[in-house]
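Data availability (excerpt). All sequences and predicted token strings are deposited with the supplementary files. A representative entry, RimJ/RimL family protein N-acetyltransferase, is shown inline so that the format can be inspected without opening the archive.
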Amino acid sequence: MGLMKHWPIFGLRVRTPRLELRLPRDSELDALAEVAAAGVHPPDLMPFAFPWTDAPPEKVARNVLQYSWRCLAGWTAQDWKLPLTVFADGSPIGIQELYAQDFTVARHAETGSWLGLAHQGRGHGTEMRAAILELAFTGLGARTVGSAAHTDNPASHAVSRRVGYRENGRRFSAVQGRPVEDTLYLVDRESWSAHRGVETEITGLAPCLPLFGLAEEPEPRGARPR
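Structure token line:
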């Protein structure tokens, strides 16, 4: 209770019929690192703007640990990153992240995610994205949420479109010494509401709101069947 009292985000839970999203305990974070070390994408594909998976398995595992710790250590109400571990049948399978800067003013956040290779192709990507959008819009009162994917990552594009995002432009960058084109996506409250199809329950959010810079719950929360 000591850690949850002073860092209540450890008590936050987002649940869908098959998944639970929450911060992991130390042993669970270590298990999540093993999932990443076993593979997140085919070796001929790099879906991330920062190629953290381009390393030996033991370094990939450490990258997961260090990133999670950095997000929590660097958290402020003006600049936060929430990397929730995704659990299926009690075991970690990936990360669904929500992050924002100046959220209390802009009411805009971004999403990012990854799944272990062994857990892909089962619809988990769509379900976990729907869950984090429920947290963003219903739980935190977001106006818009963005995402991005390399043009050669059709699975990510499909998930974004399925839950209500629309294309919102392009950007170009360099990854591993080569030019990369990203498709930008944006979903607003209206489009999200029209695509809500996953029953989602949020618990433990109220004591976390000050950490997000919020004083009150934006609207009632809870399971929302469709």
